[in-house]
Amino acid sequence: MRRSVMFLVLAMMLSASSAFAQLTTPAALNNWPQWRGPEMTGVAPKGNPPTEWSEEKNVKWKIEVPGDSTATPIVWGDKVFVTSAIKTDREGEPAPPPAEFAATSAEPAKGKRGFRTSGEAPKNIFEFVTLCYDRATGKEIWRHVANEAVPHEGHHPDGSYSSASPSTDGQRLYVSFGSFGVYCYDLEGKLLWKRDLGRMWTFNSFGEGASPVIYGDNVIVNWDHQGGSFLICLDAATGETRWKIDREETTTWATPLVLDAAGHVQVILHGSTRVRSYDLATGELIWACGGQGPSAIPTPVSDGTRVFAMTGFITNTLYAIPLNSTGDITEDETKVAWKSRKIGTPYVPSPLLVGDLLYFTAGNKGILSCYNAATGEPVVEKQRLEGIANIYASPVEAAGHIYVTSREGNTVVFETGKFDESGDKKEVKLLFTNTLDDRFDASAAIVGPEIFLRGRKHLYCIAAP
User: Which of 175, 306, 415, 441 has the greatest number of C-beta atoms within 10 Å?
Assistant: First the structure.
């Protein structure tokens, strides 16, 4: 029996390791297969898109996308994949949770309200849809209605019922609509499997948002909510559960970061009470570090030695945690590489790591900071980016340029690692401010000479003629 268990763990570790090699092949690096790109840093290693555009310049195509979504598009080969929630004119009742999850899916008390919500749950049926578009033309290739349901709760006025970005390993497409199911398709749109993990009840009915992550033959889904949180690992080929770990967390919106470091393939998941690392092979806890704040949304990034976790709602925290940590290091701050509680860290956007430079914005505002990732020394501190008012999209980088997109439709571009000095103060120099006629909450995806921008109404492909 022990030998069988050891064999299973070894097989999973080998599977994960081979997938890590697969995800850093030229094919993967030339695509945008998941939230935050091929290396989950926000960087497009092979990207070289335009730095200037407008509605009249460098728009290769622009299409209207049905429904509503804040999810980032992903790209593989000649296909672009997006998700959407389409409100219909039909009315109905919310579906009850499956019997096996009834104990953890019943609506809990939510405590004090005091933040904006969308009010009561809707009465209309929504279609939860995956769409595939031709990368060259924007023409729809296929769409699949994964589910039709009446949502059991509302969402934040700025959110949507389709906030999780899809992911692909180049063979299969993985889509999470959270409470409305997790789905796997082949790239031609054939449904291969689906899972119902229950119902989420989110803090203040703010909605759901964590994206599925693929590593080897594993799909990892964060299920943090008010009714019994867990992290689950599914078999990528079948959707069957490999392991499921309960979490002492309430609602978060953080997508896990998965990487091979310090002798483990680590699944690193942000939380309001702890940042935790789990062993992908077994689900066992490797390390944990407290000191975080509420509303854990930004996905951590890593330089291969440290992981950088930050929150920017109510409290501003940034922790650089060594990947070779073990156990709960919360009470021993000497084991943290460096930390800060006084800088402008993000609320919704995730940070951007380019080499040894860590870029991030303050709250949901266009206020930029840049720190040396190894030392924690500031390079740029709270520079206001002209033309950028409010931000939900995360910054991205390609070919020596960083792109920051605002909710109002502006994208500023500046050079990576280059700063103007005025006395003892350093700032980035904005090269271009590009404006489109839409609102942007989804992060950009960069593939080769193209940048894909998902607005609340349209999907743009930006490319030079």
Answer: 175
3-state SS assignment for residue 229: strand
Residue 359: its H or E element: strand 357-361
- Largest Cα–Cα separation, the chain: 68
Domain 2-100+117-462 architecture? 7 Propeller (2.130)
**pLDDT by position in tens, the chain (length 465):** 444 434 333 343 333 333 333 455 667 788 999 999 999 999 999 999 999 999 999 999 999 999 999 999 999 999 999 999 999 999 998 876 655 554 444 444 444 444 445 556 789 999 999 999 999 999 999 999 999 999 988 888 888 999 999 999 999 999 999 999 999 999 999 999 999 999 998 888 888 989 999 999 999 999 999 888 999 999 999 999 999 999 999 999 999 999 999 999 999 999 999 999 999 999 999 999 998 888 889 999 999 999 999 998 888 999 999 999 999 999 898 999 999 988 899 999 999 999 999 999 999 999 999 999 999 999 999 999 999 999 999 999 999 999 999 999 999 999 999 999 877 789 999 999 999 999 999 999 999 999 999 999 999 999 999
Q: Which two tokens stand for residue 75?
A: 């790209």
Three-state secondary structure call for residue 335: helix
Q: Which of 99, 109, 96 is nearest to 227 (CA)?
A: 109
Instruction: Give the amino acid at 21.
Output: A
Are 44 and 131 spatial neighbours (Cβ–Cβ below 8 Å)? no
Write down the H helix ranges in 77-130.
102-105
In 362-416 the beta strands, taken as DSSP E runs, fall at 367-372, 378-384, 396-398, 401-405, 410-415
The answer to whether the predicted template modeling score (pTM) of the entire model surpasses 0.85 is: yes
| Tokens 């939860």 sit on residue | 128
